[in-house]
Amino acid sequence: MCNTCGCSSAKEITENPGMTRRAAVGAVSAGAGALALTACGSSMDSDATAASIDPGAPAEPTDMAAVADVPVGGVIKATAQGTSVMITQPTEGTFHAFSSVCTHQGCQVNAQKEKTINCPCHASVFSTEDGAPQGGPAETALPEFPLEIKGDRIWVG
Ligand code: FES
Fold first, then answer.
1. Which domain of life is it from (predicted)?
2. Statement to judge: residues 69 and 146 lie in one domain
């Protein structure tokens, strides 16, 4: 596991085989973190892991949120029964549910100020309309899950 950001990459250690773990941590603390972050954020890692990342789909249709909770033009992160999803409403009355698991290296994404979908690990940004990456190292869209409006509730899965 990456000691810098918590991602699954072991590259920062394997790229410096002569460096001890303690020395590596010290080097990161001393400002060499850019090297480790670059290793975690390489497109090679993205290609290697995106297909193997579990998107965390609800096991069955699940009541995730109230329709009124999702701002028009925005996004919320909804959690129910141990599963989190990103629910968006890009235009009034149009809803989408996307995985909350970043396709870069599997970090949990967040709803930045209820406007954008952002990953805190390496700063990928995803579209609220189709989950497509719009910035950062992620190259693959967030998977979309089936969504159904039942009354004033949003069911996902
Ligand atoms: S895990 Fe790297 S940007 Fe999300």
1. Bacteria
2. yes
